[in-house]
Write a structure and sequence with these properties.
Blueprint (H helix, E strand, L loop, with lengths): L1 H15 L22 H13 L3 E3 L4 E4 L2 E8 L5 E3 L7
Antiparallel strand pairs: 1-2, 2-3, 3-4
């Protein structure tokens, strides 16, 4: 009789015990710092900004004229301006 009573007491305690749920921690985001621009690129960017309100040198190297990207004109990250000339040969 004692064994049966002990069995039921253990059963009741184990049934009433709080349930534990294990959850995995969410992965944390690793912040990637923005790339550092070459000093000559920054100097050219400042020169263009100071000379006129019309032109803007964007961080990706494109030059905008009043918000419109100028085609075939690009500045490398080291500050070298590239102009692409397209010539039609007949």
């Amino acid at each position: 009789m004692k064994k049966i009573t002990l069995f039921f007491i253990v059963l009741i305690f184990s049934a009433c015990a709080p349930q534990v749920t294990v959850t995995l921690a969410l992965p944390t985001e690793t912040l990637i710092p923005p790339p550092t621009l070459h000093p000559e690129f920054v100097a050219l960017q400042n020169l263009i900004a100071d000379s006129s309100q019309r032109f803007t040198l964007l961080p990706d190297g494109n030059i905008e004229d009043n918000g419109t990207v100028i085609p075939n004109l690009h500045v490398d990250q080291n500050g070298i301006i590239n102009i692409v000339l397209i010539m039609n040969m007949l």
